[in-house]
Design a protein that fits this description.
There is one protein chain. With about 450 residues, the protein is an alpha/beta fold. The protein contains 16 helices and 18 strands. It has a 7-stranded parallel beta sheet, with helices on both faces. The chain has a 7-stranded parallel beta sheet with strand order 10-11-9-12-13-8-14, with helices on both faces. The protein has a two-stranded antiparallel ribbon with strand order 15-16.
Length: about 450
């Protein structure tokens, strides 16, 4: 633990880190901790799982425990409830031998217990909306604040929290230390840093994912075979914990329900669930009582889960940045990981955007021989049923299912854009707008313009 001592940390904190299994600081910790200890504002470029909680939390814990009982001295703003809860648990673990009170504040749970917790807290971690509620009600007293942390700032701006964050920052004392951590740096983040930080020191860490350990593949799949392929892979590949990503809440629920129908233990996590439900789902996944977590980006952002062997992109993300966040949840700590992309016609535009990142090495693999499975499209609110070979919707216009697209409107989810498909051509005869060949059964046409990436 000598390397942690060299960073200027207290023996109590080092003892807690040893208990937690830490041996050496991560790259972002080694770079950021001395700067925070020295009192600098810091901009850290680091992704989930890189150790950034300790990078900003170590110096805060050491300072606060030397000055207990003086009100809220540190405020950590996060984009999601899960990250707020995770930060609180991590800081409590790191500070187990320190006299520090920590409160997590977020929506979806009772207001009163949070109010009482904040009255005793030295450190508060929370989401912008609920923090602003407490601030406006006078429950959140920031007059003695020493540290302000913006954790995953890029995601908070993506989620539209800029006005809430600005209101909270402007309620903080001018004399404070500001720490901003973000996986990516955008013009908006740079503007915020220039406006609210004093001569910030910039540090960065390379991806915590070992590229040599991460295998990335994609299947070019007919739309009506996407779910059948997912079932086949989940049942036939050797896996530990699995994360399946969807772009919308409704898709996540639909996937989860149908996985259960075929005997696969899965649970969904997204912003539409109660906080208690989300917490219990994460606990079950951490304990490996369930092995498949179907999630949206917003709900999964900030979750640091060990032992994820496979990441499946059932819906392809809209950007390479989001793709990197997703696949970064596997191939950690020297272990192998696999990222599987199930790409169909509706995903082509998004996948082309993902492939614009030249650093990504995603290989094409042929479709295996698989059994077509039927999907239930039951709308629990209206009691309707539908069955087909792939995702379509609650109403089918003219023969969508295993055979082809007819006239009709895909209404399963806004994530599909409510596209109208005309004609009744079979899926195998469809031609990709980005290829010169047919799309049936894994045949290849012209590439996206990159070698080894063909449709």
């Amino acid at each position: 633990m000598e390397s942690f001592r060299k960073l200027g940390l207290s023996e109590e904190l080092i003892h807690a880190l040893a208990d937690a299994g830490f041996k050496e600081p991560s790259e972002i910790q080694e770079k950021a901790i001395p700067l925070v200890v020295a009192g600098h504002d810091v901009i850290g470029s680091a992704a989930t799982g890189s150790g950034k909680t300790l990078a900003f939390g170590a110096a805060i814990l050491d300072h606060v425990h030397k000055n207990p009982g003086q009100g809220i001295q540190a405020l950590i703003i996060t984009p999601t409830r899960e990250l707020s809860e995770q930060n609180a648990k991590s800081l409590l673990k790191f500070g187990k031998y320190l006299n520090v009170n920590i409160a997590a504040v977020y929506g979806g749970v009772s207001y009163e217990p949070q109010y009482r917790a904040m009255k005793r807290a030295d450190i508060v971690t929370g989401t912008p909306g609920r923090l602003l509620d407490h601030l406006r009600d006078g429950a959140l007293d920031l007059s003695r604040l020493k540290y302000l942390v913006l954790d995953e700032a890029d995601r908070m701006l993506d989620m539209g929290f800029i006005e809430d964050i600005t209101a909270i920052i402007e309620a903080c004392p001018k004399k404070r230390q500001t720490l901003l951590f973000s996986a990516t740096m955008s013009p908006d983040i740079n503007h915020m840093a220039q406006k609210y930080m004093q001569n910030p020191q910039e540090v960065g860490a390379v991806s915590h994912v070992d590229p040599s350990k991460l295998k990335q593949v994609y299947y070019d799949t007919p739309q009506d075979m996407k779910f059948s392929l997912l079932i086949h892979l989940l049942k036939n590949e050797h896996q530990d914990l699995v994360m399946v990503f969807c772009n919308t809440r409704r898709n996540a629920d639909l996937i989860t329900k149908n996985l259960k129908r075929y005997g696969i233990g899965a649970m969904a996590i997204h912003g539409g669930l109660s906080q208690n439900k989300r917490n219990s789902t994460i606990d079950l996944f951490h304990s490996k009582d369930i092995r498949v977590l179907v999630c949206t980006d917003v709900a999964a952002r900030g979750l640091d889960i060990k032992g994820v062997s496979h990441v499946y992109n059932y819906d392809i993300p809209k950007s390479s940045k989001e793709y990197v966040h997703r696949v970064g949840r596997t191939a950690r700590a020297g272990k192998d990981g696999i990222a599987v992309n199930i790409v169909s016609r509706n995903d082509y535009m998004n996948f082309k955007e993902v492939l614009s990142d030249e650093s990504l090495q995603i290989e094409s693999v042929e479709m295996p021989q698989i059994e077509r499975v039927q999907i239930s499209f039951r709308d629990d609110r209206q009691g309707r049923f539908g069955h087909g070979g792939g995702f379509g919707g609650r109403r089918f216009g003219g023969g969508f299912g295993g055979r082809g697209f007819g006239r009709g409107r895909d209404q399963t989810d806004r994530g599909f854009g409510e596209r109208r498909f005309t004609g009744g051509s079979r899926h195998g005869a469809r031609r990709s707008p980005y290829s010169g060949g047919s799309r049936g059964g894994g045949s290849r046409g012209r590439s996206f313009g990159r070698s080894e990436r063909r449709f």
